[in-house]
Write a structure and sequence with these properties.
Layout (H helix, E strand, L loop, with lengths): L2 E3 L11 E4 L22 H7 L1 E3 L5 E4 L5 E4 L6 E3 L5 H7 L8 E4 L3 H4 L1 H10 L19 H6 L4 E4 L1 H10 L1 H7 L3 E4 L6 H15 L3 H22 L7 E5 L9 E3 L3 H8 L3 E2 L9 E3 L2 H7 L3 E6 L18 E2 L3 H10 L17 E5 L8 H12 L9 H12 L6 E2 L1 E3 L2
Parallel strand pairs: 6-7, 6-8, 10-12, 10-14, 14-16
Antiparallel strand pairs: 1-5, 2-8, 2-9, 3-4, 4-5, 11-13, 15-17, 16-18
Length: 407
Amino acid sequence: MKTRHTAAGTALFATALVLTACSGAGDGDDAAGTTENAATESGTTAATSATRAAADGQITITDVEGRTVTFDSLPERIILGEGRGIFATAILDREDPLDKVVAMGSDLRAAAPAYFDNLVAAYPKAGEVPEIGNIAKGDVTVENLISHDPDALVITADHYDAAKTTGMLDKLDAAGITYIVTDFRQHPMTNTTVSVTALGELFGRKDAAESFNEEWNGVVERVKERVADVDRKPSTFLWRAAGLKDCCNTVAKANLGEMISLAGGDNLADHIIDTESGDITAEKLIDEQPEIIIATGGTWAKQNDKPQAVPHVDLGYGVSPDTSRDTLKGLLDTPGLNELNAPGEGRFYGVWHQFYDSPFNYIALEQFGKWIHPDKFSDIDPVADLRDANSRYLPFTADGTFFIGVN
């Protein structure tokens, strides 16, 4: 398969990356091609024009950076640079989210162990897919990628940024490996649909991508409409990976912080930190007294029924509401946080951490709206919506706890 790729000089979005490598088998032609720019005016424009099929059967994918890659035919061997890319491929192909996946990143079983266990139970081959390591940690080599004979490799925007710093991109270019960019993590409210469109084209699941994007856009527009006339935006603090990281890591103008703003909240971090992520001290948090605190959590502990060296909010598949609520309250044992007003007022919440890197982020957005402006979302049931989406896009049920309040 030949691939002609384009490297954008000016991009509108910082997003995830799909690296495309052509197999050297076949006629022996060089896989490397030419490059050009295809910057778009908005996330909506990119979502509708991100992919196009050429008249001669070639497929051109435009990523959120405005870069384009042209395939002579659909890729048949794809590497997911991040294992959590399965969150998106499952949406595209419920029957086999690992179709065409020949290797993947090593993050899924560590970051979302309960999800991984459910996945393996439904698709035993998920536990047999070779793992390539973690690009952000620098333990992925170009030689390893090539050994899997891929037609395409998908990685995330932050891993792309890391690869630029480490020089890995130069090595990929030298090896003739091509890449395009998608993103669910850095700027999800802009790039989710663009990314799903690009992946839908890559995996030959364009119709499934369009159907999901229609649903995603519908929910996001509904949230926007409901908070458009709010008189006041409550100060809201997003405590990222609470307990797992030092007090208190957060995000500004990115990631779940974007969702707080879109849901009608005033993201506290936007006024304090200059980078996309950083720490706010307990003293500063007490001084600011946010009206609402939302902590992210997961099933990171190996034994959730025993005392943990690093306490965290236990959330996700297979977790009971009582366990989630108890571990959420346990965060308040952090020195100084007993002086916060929000928990005593019942405005202290927990959300499953993996929404920050999943196309299902639109459901977390609904819940944020319900917590921040309960009067505007009294008829909305994010838990029911999550169960419905899970049943339509995954072969296992959403049994567990993904949202919790201190009361």
